[in-house]
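To assess whether the prediction recovers the assembly geometry, we first specified each molecular entity separately, as shown.
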Amino acid sequence: MGFDRLIEKIAEKQNPTVAGLDPKLEFIPDFIKKKAFAAQESPFKAAADSLLAFNKALIDALCDIVPAVKPQAAYYEMYGYEGMRALAETIAYAKQKNLFVITDAKRNDIGPTMEAYAAAHLGVTDINGEPYEAFGGDALTVNGYLGSDGITPLLKVCKERDKGIFVLVKTSNPSSSELQNLELAKGRTVYRQMGEMCESWGKDSPGGYGYSAVGAVVGATYPAELAELREELPHTFFLVPGYGAQGGGAKDILPAFDSDGLGGIVNSSRAIMCAYQKENCREEDFAFAARREAIRMRDEIMAEIGEIKLP
Amino acid sequence: MGFDRLIEKIAEKQNPTVAGLDPKLEFIPDFIKKKAFAAQESPFKAAADSLLAFNKALIDALCDIVPAVKPQAAYYEMYGYEGMRALAETIAYAKQKNLFVITDAKRNDIGPTMEAYAAAHLGVTDINGEPYEAFGGDALTVNGYLGSDGITPLLKVCKERDKGIFVLVKTSNPSSSELQNLELAKGRTVYRQMGEMCESWGKDSPGGYGYSAVGAVVGATYPAELAELREELPHTFFLVPGYGAQGGGAKDILPAFDSDGLGGIVNSSRAIMCAYQKENCREEDFAFAARREAIRMRDEIMAEIGEIKLP
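The predicted structure of the complete assembly is given in tokenized form:
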């Protein structure tokens, strides 16, 4: 229930990090693209095949190091429906390798429409009475601006199928304060209000380790808010973006964790995917470079946390 | 610039309504599904082919009546990447029939990721130096919870390619007040704050008819808020959901319009798509029933508005 499966993988691997899979073509080694474009005339199909080959190699190199991967839907959608095929096949491959998959799609809509998104990303689609998985992630990022109606259909699927959601609370980007940090008349910020809503939405799905199926996205770039929210939202598991490229360091993300070293998972996308560019190694060795960076990140964060203990 | 192309189509057809294309399988006549599933073994592919056949017939029946269509991305995504193919082909077909296409996907993310969504839905994707349209809508619904960073990449594409966005301001669903109607310390509601942000984001893209490229989603189910926002956001064009099925009537949507009858476009999805079920006519006549309902809706709304005049 809740994020238990994710938490167990984190404890098993002693690694509270998730590798983002945001495979823009410019991040992908030439030898992969050359092969894909030689084999396939359709540009979108060849691009999608490149994405998938890149992701599979990364997953192979990372699957014993990280507990989870987080494909960012936008980087697949930009390659059209072929890109969405690469997303579906990436998710299937990662699950086959026993990774927890967080689909980062920040979906949101009114209730009946949210049922369709819940089916698409966490549940099953009914076709002539038979259930089929469209994308099949383990967790989905969502936006709570529409209130409970847009969250309730997800809670149902989370409960029935042991899935989770991460609601945007305090995002990592520079302008996140424009709305999220405004003070409400009743005396709390908008992000804090959204956080309280997460606690409330999670009430019905208590997990075995104290965290519900309703998590929150809280950026590493705002350590003060991260500390405040960890204290105020004791049952809400955090997805923490903004580490590395966006400026958050290992000390900045420490407040995400409780005294057992649980409570959050830190994302790194570009630093892992593009480690081969930074290392300036042979591009054929990109997956090894990604693995080295994932290990470095794990060790850097675990040096701060100490040990992750299941209560 | 801005929503000028949409406004001209609205004036030309004297019809400020948009037909929502939310083609769940259960809404689609059996004869279409039977044909698609007989021709195709893959359930997702057959489902997507059904969606597309349904949409094309609706578009053929509606294209001289309505100025625009609004496919809701969730109802395609739930059928996987094949569903997304149906979305892309629906958009292409609607544009071929000279309709303005609003892709209702409520996308949102941090800046660099939003560039990918902007490319996917309004712009072009660069593949080996060549530009390709992934989905190719004319406007996109988006969520502004992340502030300016998540909007700026869209504004760039809107300007370069004559497109528009609709930002969620006051949504039509029952729980929209939970966050949106909270009062801020400085004395305005969250939705009003979001509305002011729309005015500000739109400053750089003034349209020829007084409306910028940054529109807002404001539900017909909250006529008081609709009236307040129309008055306070003079350059923001409104997409108004919630008419019909969700409870908004013709008088409720009147405040969306300025004295020229401009300023908004009212959506109806299910009432048009499923008119054949309500009429209880032969399912083979579903497109005629949809056309009758679209005309009825136009006439009902135009009876309130009077005439739409280009200034």
